[in-house]
What we know:
Elements: H1 2-18, H2 24-37, E1 42-43, H3 45-54, H4 59-66, H5 70-79, E2 81-82, H6 85-93
Helix pairs in contact: 3-5, 4-5
Amino acid sequence: MAQSTATESFYHETAEKLKPKMTPAEEEWALTEEISMDQGYLYSGKRIVRDMRRHRITIRQLALRMDLSQVRVRQVRREGVTGVATLDWFEAIRRIGHDFGAVV
């Protein structure tokens, strides 16, 4: 019994490794779908930091773009953001649209 579990685990790990890799555009689309479909609306701090680096957005630029303080941007980078504001942060970091408005 334990051997079949180990074998199944091996096959699942191998299948994961053989899955085709997503292009950056496909990855962004998948993330957008994940955020819009998920009822929890969670944009983690780690993902925000990663996306800010990927899109070369500084804390100052994001604060000005969203009309927030730099302290608030740093707090969100540490703790993440939940709720409807998740999509506003996602769009502001990725430069989607142009009118972001004040979001807390």
